[in-house]
């Protein structure tokens, strides 16, 4: 396998000094990108009612968005966070599992713990607690891959900690030292979890003469899947695909190896395309690559866009996320750029689901966006992310422990449903 590229985990993860130098050189360009990313982070769009009423994409009225808790006709993704004062986190900062310092909010002194006491309550049923033993029985002999950026890995590490707290410890069987491609093995269950780090999902190269930085130019090849994952995918039984925040930075876009435009590149000679164009194509290519690969027989989950919650400024000029309580459903809706990103994914997902069916591949949507938009209190903020660099708050990833555990509660319920014969019980079949 090729050496993974050496850029940072997220575009908004770089030190401010780089940014300052950058400002001097590229001020006009920066202003443009700030306008775009300000609206990105501050959610200052409000008038998307028409999209909300679009039956094709409405989070609440699309049949593909309506998976059920096992045994129940209930949309587990529609609900609210309810206070449960007795709720304990699945694991602590002393559980034997890897918690990245950047998400280890307890270790770095986050003073409040109310954010650990909210549980997700679907409107029409209960979301059962995660049962590690049950989970491991379902995935016996399987490989589960988290394909995408570091927010996807956030879920993976949360899962590993949830299993570790129930005394199921994983062996590190990584084949490269780079932890973005970590592999965990559970010998008693012959179960493998692996991270396939690919923040754009498609082939991407650095394209900035000044080298990589928070806002440096990249080149995206929209019709070519990133080989770092596509060469590894054929043995995967369950893949959870996600991507998002890396698309909000400048890049050139290529199709059939020809430059077709750019995003935030400030070059008048090049067609300006929207983030959504790139995002749409990246998912389409990813899904098509899975469908085209006849050796791949896995179950595909799309984990929908994970919202960030910067307030009081942009990520790179003092924005933070200091709330200690969830929003109520009346206070906050999926809207603006978030809704647009979400809908872009949903559209590509629907197309892929249809195409996939033709060759017996199942696509499922892990529809976490609505739940997570309500959790501005769930991010590390200044507790974790480069703890020495207090200037930059992390309002993108999720504290561990924290609300990200809910994604794995969803995962278990979705897998249980597969196993119960609905959808032909594919997950329990041996690979042919
Ligand atoms: C929602 O879906 C139901 C059944 O699938 C349909 O009858 C109804 O018209 C839809 N509502 C909207 C607003 O599209
Ligand atoms: C774990 O978190 C507590 C605060 O909840 C903190 O006092 C302690 O130092 C942390 N321990 C480790 C090993 O990080
Ligand atoms: C473990 O699972 C793999 C498939 O992922 C299978 O090929 C292998 O035979 C299994 N090993 C045992 C000991 O069951
Ligand atoms: C744009 O194209 C014109 C005409 O081909 C050329 O003279 C100019 O240098 C180009 N500008 C940039 C920024 O590449
Ligand atoms: C998938 O296969 C079709 C038909 O051969 C081809 O046109 C398309 O480019 C392929 N897509 C990808 C992403 O490889």
From TrEMBL:
Any one of the GO CC terms: membrane
Is-annotated flag, keyword Membrane? Answer: yes
Q: Which UniProt keywords apply?
A: Membrane, Signal-anchor, Transmembrane, Transmembrane helix
Q: Which domain of life is it from?
A: Eukaryota
> What sequence ranges are listed for the domain Trichome birefringence-like C-terminal?
127-414
Q: Which residues form the Trichome birefringence-like N-terminal domain?
A: 72-126
| Membrane-spanning parts | 25-42
A Pfam family recorded for this sequence: PMR5N
The entry assigns this protein to a family as follows: Belongs to the PC-esterase family. TBL subfamily.
Q: What protein name does the entry list?
A: Trichome birefringence-like N-terminal domain-containing protein
